[in-house]
C-alpha cells in the first residue's frame, strides 16, 4: 500500500494487523505492522525496515455511524513513531478519514490537508 507521509517510504506491505490473535483485515484507524518495500535513498526509513503504521485511506467502502459510506481510490497508511500515536513524518499527503480523530490520531488529522 502507499505511504501518505514524508518519512521516505513509498510502498509498504502489511504482514500483521494488531488487535487480536487471528485478526485478518485492517480498517480505517487500525494499526498494522509492515515492511518497507520501496523507499527514497535519503529518507528516515530504509527498504526492509519493519514499521508500525495506521490506515488512513481504504478502497473498500467503510460504513459510518450515520449509515453513510466512505471509500477512497487507494489504500494508504501513515508510519507511526515509537509511542504509536504521533506520525514519524512531519507532513501528510492526501485526504484522510474523519474516523482517525475518534481513534486518537489527532496529530495526523491536524497535519492532513483534507479530512473527509
Instruction: Give the count of helical stretches.
Output: 2
The residue ranges in which pLDDT falls below 50 over 5 or more consecutive positions are none
User: Which sequence of SSEs, written as H and E, runs from N to C?
Assistant: EEEEEEEHH
- % residues in beta strands: 25-35%
**Rg (CA only):** 13 Å
DSSP strand tally: 7
The N- and C-terminal alpha carbons lie at a distance of 20 Å
Mean pLDDT: 93
Major sheet, described briefly?
5 strands, mixed
Structure class: mainly beta
Overall shape: it is globular
Helix content, binned percent:
under 10%
What features would you describe in this structure?
- By secondary structure, the chain is mainly beta.
- It contains two helices and seven strands.
- The protein has helices at residues 99-102, 106-111, and strands at 2-3, 9-17, 31-39, 50-57, 62-63, 69-70, 76-79.
- The strands form two sheets. It has a five-stranded mixed sheet, with no helix packed on it.
- A hairpin with a 5-residue loop joins strand 5 (62-63) and strand 6.
- The radius of gyration is 13 Å and the shape is globular.
- The protein starts with a strand and ends in a 5-residue tail after the last helix.
Short description:
With 116 residues, this protein is mainly beta.
List keywords for this structure.
116 residues, two-stranded antiparallel sheet, 2 helices
Furnish the topology, listing elements before pairings:
Layout: E1 2-3, E2 9-17, E3 31-39, E4 50-57, E5 62-63, E6 69-70, E7 76-79, H1 99-102, H2 106-111
Parallel strand pairs: 1-7
Antiparallel strand pairs: 2-3, 3-4, 4-7, 5-6
